[in-house]
Amino acid sequence: MPIPGSDFMASIEVNGEMIPVCYATDCQISQTFDTREISGPQSRWRDYIPDYMGYTIDMPVLLVYTEAYNFLDFQKAGQSGTRLKWAASAFENGGIVHSGEILLTSLNLTSQMRDVVKFDVSAIGCGELKTEAKPIQKVVYLSDFSKKMLVGCPNPYPLSVFWYDFTLIGPATNPDDVIQIFNDYSANHGNYYRLISSVDGGCYFNMEIEYNAPQPFPITVFAQQGASFAISSDQTLDNVISMDQDMDNVLTPIA
After folding, report:
1. Kind of pairing, strands 136-143 and 220-225?
2. Which contiguous run of DSSP H or E holds residue 64?
3. 249 within some domain
4. Does the pLDDT of residue 254 top 50, yes or no?
5. What is the rounded CA–CA span in Å between residue 25 and residue 97?
6. Are residues 89 and 159 part of one domain?
7. Is 157 found in the same domain as 116?
8. What is the pLDDT of residues 201-227, one digit of tens each?
9. Which of 47, 61, 92, 192 is most buried by its number of CB atoms within 10 A?
10. With contact defined as beta carbons under 8 Å apart, do 48 and 11 qualify?
11. 10 in the same domain as 105
C-alpha cells in the first residue's frame, strides 16, 4: 500500500522528546554514494569501488513563530552550530523510521504575494543515516463484530475470542487468557499482531503490529460474551467437553 505524503512527518529531538516540524509540507531525504575509480591498464573499461556515503535533508515549511518546531528554532540551531537529532516516519509510533544527526546548511525565508510566508531548511547528515523497522504500538479493545465495546467492560468475562475473519480461536475468563489465545493463534497465522499486556485489567490491551502487516490495522479484538461454554455434539443433550462439569467450566460458547 502506498504511504500517503501527508503521513510522512519529520521530527526534531527537544529535551529527549521528538517534536514534529510544525507545518512542514515535505521532507526530502537525499542519499549520496561516492565511488572511487580503480581502472587499470588491463582494460579500456572504467572500474569503481564504493567510497563514502552521505545524505542531506530538505524541508519546505510554512512560517510560524509560536508552535514547535518552528523557524526560530531552526534559526537558533543554525546560528549556534548545534547538531540536531531527527527522525522521520509515516507512522505515529513505530513502523519504518529514518533517523540520525544533522547540521543546518541553509535557511531561506520566502514571501509571495497573496500566499503564506514560507521557509526552506537544508541540512547535511553527520554520521549514519539509520533506517529501522519497528513494531507499531497501538491500544485495542474487546468488541463485538460491529466494533462496539463489549457490554460489561472492564469485566465482560467469560467470553470467546475470535480472529479477524471471525474464526473462533478460544475461550477466555480473564485478560491473560485473551493474550495467550490471541498470540498463540497469531503466531501460526502471519504473526503480524501481538498483544503485549492489558491496559486496564479488562477490555483494553497494548498491541504490537508489524510494519508490513495488512492495512487497515486492527483497532479491536473481536469477542463474544457467553455464560455457558461447551464443545458439543448435541447441545440439547448436554454432550459437552468440560474441564469441570460441576462448575460448568467448558470450552466454547453455546450459540
Report:
1. parallel
2. none
3. no
4. no
5. 18
6. no
7. no
8. 999 999 999 988 988 899 999 999 874
9. 61
10. no
11. yes
Q: In this structure, are 94 and 207 located in the same domain? A: no
- Give the total number of structural domains in the chain: 2
Same domain, 20 and 130: yes
Tens digit of pLDDT for each residue in 27-70? 999 999 999 999 999 999 999 999 999 999 999 999 989 888 99
- The set of cell numbers assigned to 136 is 507499531
Round to whole Å and give the CA distance between 243 and 255.
19
Interatomic CA distance for residues 86 and 28, integer angstroms: 13
Which triple of cell numbers denotes residue 25?
A: 509540507
Contacts of 142 (CB under 8 A, 6+ apart): 149, 150, 153, 156, 159, 178, 203, 205, 220, 221, 223
**Whether residue 9 sits in one domain with residue 128:** yes
The letter for the amino acid at 75 is Q
CA atoms within 13 A on the CB side of 113: 0
Residues 85 and 110 occupy one common structural domain: yes
pTM of the entire predicted model = 0.73
Task: Return the residue matching grid coordinates 479488562.
Answer: 202
Domain span holding position 21 = 5-35+48-134
Torsion of CA 157, 159, 164, 170, to 10 degrees: 120
| Rounded Cα gap, residues 170 and 148, in angstroms | 20
